[in-house]
Structure formats: structure tokens, C-alpha cells
From TrEMBL:
SUPFAM superfamilies referenced in this protein's UniProt entry, alphabetically: P-loop containing nucleoside triphosphate hydrolases
Alphabetized UniProt keyword annotations: Cytoplasm, GTP-binding, Ligase, Magnesium, Metal-binding, Nucleotide-binding, Purine biosynthesis
Source species, domain of life: Bacteria
Protein location: Cytoplasm
SMART domains listed in its UniProt record: Adenylsucc_synt (SM00788)
Cofactors: Mg(2+)
Active site: D13 (proton acceptor), H41 (proton donor), K141
Gene: purA
GO cellular component: cytoplasm
Keyword Ligase: yes
Organism: Desulfobacca acetoxidans (strain ATCC 700848 / DSM 11109 / ASRB2)
Co-factor note (free text): Binds 1 Mg(2+) ion per subunit.
Name of the protein this chain belongs to: Adenylosuccinate synthetase
Quaternary organization: Homodimer.
PROSITE patterns: ADENYLOSUCCIN_SYN_1, ADENYLOSUCCIN_SYN_2
Length: 431
């Protein structure tokens, strides 16, 4: 029995969905523990594309149980649409394979309206939020006025909370943000109906996990976004509103830290970022365009073009420390084919001072310059490789250098988007 956490080690979009899909074969239960539908996983299985926003990608495997933890903020409309879409693709979703935590918070329409209106008001200073209402929903959670799943399926509580919350939200929308108000009766009726559709899926995720642990089952925890979008440890304020780090699995799913056995960090062979915020290794040249085009770097949730750049070992080493990583999965190694030389940022230069960690000060971080180490590239297509020894020597050297810089072994290497285009060096569930 082993419990494994999969975390992004950059700014999200590292390919966690594919790795979770791969590891689900060895898991009995897959748990999503934070974030909302501002995240997205795209998987290609036997040529068929699947896109996930809330449901763990482990749903593709027959006989596995997928759980949405209390740390997730749930847009019920998106969840129901995702269930319907999977059904059209031949995947039946129901209580037998999906459970929604009764303690998860619900994204309401006023959260989305506030998100968009605030971002418009910021103008050039906008953060780059997806506008899905994630941040405002987490605000209500912390302010203790949020609507939880257990409220969504209780009509009286739902009605009282909607009416109470809209008094404040409509005041903000109309008087401060110059936007139109929402009608409480319409919101209540719409969400009451969605609650009824979701009722069969609602359960106590923490209790289910405790029972699974007693039975000796393997559990896989997946987060959304990445370490450097963490609300506490990321490049604040250009961050998400929750804790993607491995510790978030404990609070976001209801499990004690002593029950977690291993933490697998996912990193692209280069770096990408969506939205605003400092990006020290961003490549605004032909190399960056190569990564963007060859890597098809568009967000699966928003469709936004991702910023691209070289691998940043400073960012990775912060992630090693913050998550307690026991292994790495390197994705999209194939995208680097044709680039020569390759670069890895091994330190930051801040006005002549060498830094090995990401500074907390945004102004200091914006002044940092990358200190690069160059390695030879390769020209050979990697997508058909299935063993580490089959990779070109330059690719193997690149991966070994990542291990040297971080002190963490690479356990998985992805050389293409399809499930089979993967090299498994070590299974996190077995060692």
C-alpha cells in the first residue's frame, strides 16, 4: 500500500493529467484536492482527446474510484457538463466511480461576475485570472459565508445563503464595479436544480479515504496548477487562490500528513507560464517560438497562448523543498528536439548577487537575470522511444543534469502526448 501525491513544480500546465492517467493503473483511488475549473488536463488515449477540468483524469480507468475533495471549489454547471461530455465519449460517470465531497465549496454566479468586473477595473495591472470565479469563491470560504455542496442539496439553506450573500455582492457589483446585479430567485432556482442532479454523487471523502487506507489500497492525490502558483509560496500576487503544494493534499482531502508516502513532482523539460507575473527564463525569440509551436502551448481551460522559456532549476529546487519531492516526472522532452544548444538556468543574478532561491519580493524577482548553463541538443525524434537507453546521449545527459541540480531521481519521462509515449524508470507506488 502506498499513497502518492502528484504536484506541478512550475506554474502549472506541466502535464500532470497524463502522469496521473499513467499512475492510475497502479492506484485504487484518485483524489483531486484543490483548485477549480481554472485548471485543465488534456489526455490523448489511442488517438482520442479527453479534457478534464474538475473530474480526476483517473476516471478513464474502469474499476477506479475518483474523488473530488473538500479543497476543490466546484462550479456545478461545469461539473455536470463534464459528466455529460464524458458520457458522449463512452464513459459512464456515477456514484460507482465519482464522489463529490459534501464539504467542497460551490462557485456561484456572483463569484464569476465579481472576478470579471474586478479584472476589468485593474486595467493594465490585471493578474490574468481565468475569470472562472475561483478567487472570489475562496474569499467567501475564508469569510465563512460560502455555499458548500451540503448546502447546495439543502434547498432551505441554499435559499437563505443566496439571499444573504447577494445583498453584499449586488452592492459591490452595482455601486463599486458598475456592473449589473443578479436576481436571487433566479440564482436559487438554477442552483437548486443542479444540486438535485449532483445529489447522488455527494459523500464524505475523508471517511472514504480512511476506509481505503485501512484496506491497504493505493491512493493517488492530484493537485491543480503548480507550486509557484501556490497562494502562500508562489510568485504572489500572480498566483492562484489555493495550495497546490503537496501539503494541500492533507487539508484538501481530509487525510493526515503521516499517511502520505511519496511525492512525485511534474516538470516540463522547459518552462511555461500563463498570464502575468515574472518569468526569468522566458525566451522571446525563435527558441521560445519553437517550444510554443512544437509543444502546442495553449491552455486547455482558456485556450490562451502560454509563455515559454528554458528550464529553471531555481524554480525546481524551491519545489523540491516545498513539496518534499521523492521523484520527478519530466514531460515534453520531445519538444526540445532540434534546439541546440539547450539552456538550464542554474541561478539568478540580482545586481551582482548570486541567488539559488526565488526571492519573495516581486520587485527583486523582476530585477533578476538568469544564469545559464548550456548543454548540447539533439536532432533525433524521441516519440518512438520506450527505454531510457534508446534516447540520444545528449537527451540522457540533459536528464542526468536535472537530477544533479535538484538531487531528485527522475522516475518518468514523457516523449509525446499519447499515453504509450512514456518511459517508466521507477514506479512511485512501489519504490
Amino acid at each position: 500500500m502506498a499513497n502518492v501525491v502528484v504536484v506541478g513544480t512550475q506554474w502549472g500546465d506541466e502535464g500532470k493529467g497524463k502522469i496521473v492517467d499513467l499512475l492510475t493503473e497502479h492506484a485504487d483511488i484518485v483524489v483531486r484536492y484543490q483548485g477549480g475549473n481554472n485548471a485543465g488536463h488534456t489526455l490523448v488515449v489511442q488517438g482520442q482527446k479527453f479534457i478534464f477540468h474538475l473530474i480526476p483524469s483517473g476516471i478513464l480507468h474502469v474499476g477506479k474510484k475518483c474523488l473530488i475533495g473538500n479543497g476543490v471549489v466546484v462550479d456545478p454547471e461545469v461539473l455536470l457538463m463534464e459528466i455529460d461530455r464524458l458520457k458522449t465519449q463512452g464513459l459512464e460517470v456515477g456514484p460507482h466511480n465519482l464522489v463529490l465531497s459534501e464539504k467542497a465549496h460551490i462557485i456561484m454566479p456572483y463569484h464569476q461576475r465579481l472576478d470579471h468586473a474586478r479584472e476589468r477595473a485593474k486595467g493594465a495591472g490585471k493578474i490574468g485570472t481565468t475569470g472562472r470565479g475561483i478567487g472570489p469563491c475562496y474569499e467567501d470560504k475564508i469569510s465563512r459565508c460560502g455555499v458548500r455542496v451540503v448546502d447546495l442539496i439543502d434547498p432551505e439553506t441554499l435559499k437563505a445563503k443566496v439571499e444573504h450573500n447577494l445583498k453584499e455582492k449586488n452592492f459591490l457589483l452595482e455601486r463599486f464595479l458598475e456592473d449589473a446585479p443578479l436576481d436571487a430567485a433566479e440564482v436559487y432556482d438554477r442552483y437548486r436544480q443542479m444540486g438535485e442532479h449532483l445529489r447522488p454523487l455527494v459523500g464524505n471523502v475523508s471517511l472514504l479515504l480512511a476506509e481505503a487506507i485501512r484496506k491497504g489500497q493505493n491512493i493517488l492525490f492530484e493537485g491543480a496548477q503548480g507550486t509557484h502558483l501556490d497562494i502562500d509560496h508562489g510568485t504572489y500576487p500572480f498566483v492562484t487562490s489555493s495550495n497546490p503544494v503537496a501539503g494541500g493534499a492533507c487539508t484538501g482531502a481530509g487525510i493526515g500528513p503521516g499517511k502520505l508516502n511519496r511525492v512525485l513532482g511534474i516538470s516540463k523539460a522547459y518552462t511555461t507560464r500563463v498570464g502575468g507575473g515574472p518569468f526569468i527564463t522566458e525566451a522571446l525569440d525563435a527558441d521560445g517560438e519553437h517550444m510554443q509551436v512544437q509543444g502546442a502551448e495553449f491552455g486547455s481551460t482558456t485556450g490562451r497562448k502560454r509563455r515559454t522559456g528554458w528550464l529553471d532549476a531555481v524554480v525546481l529546487n524551491d519545489s523540491v523543498r516545498l513539496n518534499g519531492l521523492t521523484g520527478f516526472a519530466i514531460t515534453k522532452l520531445d519538444v526540445l528536439t532540434g534546439l541546440d544548444p539547450l539552456k538550464i538556468c542554474v541561478a539568478y543574478d540580482l545586481n551582482g548577487k548570486r541567488l539559488q532561491n526565488v526571492p519573495a519580493s516581486l520587485s527583486a524577482l523582476e530585477q533578476c537575470q538568469p544564469v545559464y548553463e548550456e548543454l548540447p541538443g539533439w536532432q533525433e525524434d524521441l516519440t518512438g522511444k520506450r527505454r531510457f537507453e534508446e534516447l540520444p546521449e545528449e537527451a540522457r545527459r540533459y536528464l542526468r543534469r536535472v537530477e544533479e541540480l535538484t538531487g531528485i531521481p527522475i522516475q518518468i519521462v514523457s516523449v509525446g502526448p499519447d499515453r504509450e509515449e512514456t518511459i517508466l524508470l521507477a514506479n512511485p507506488f512501489t519504490g
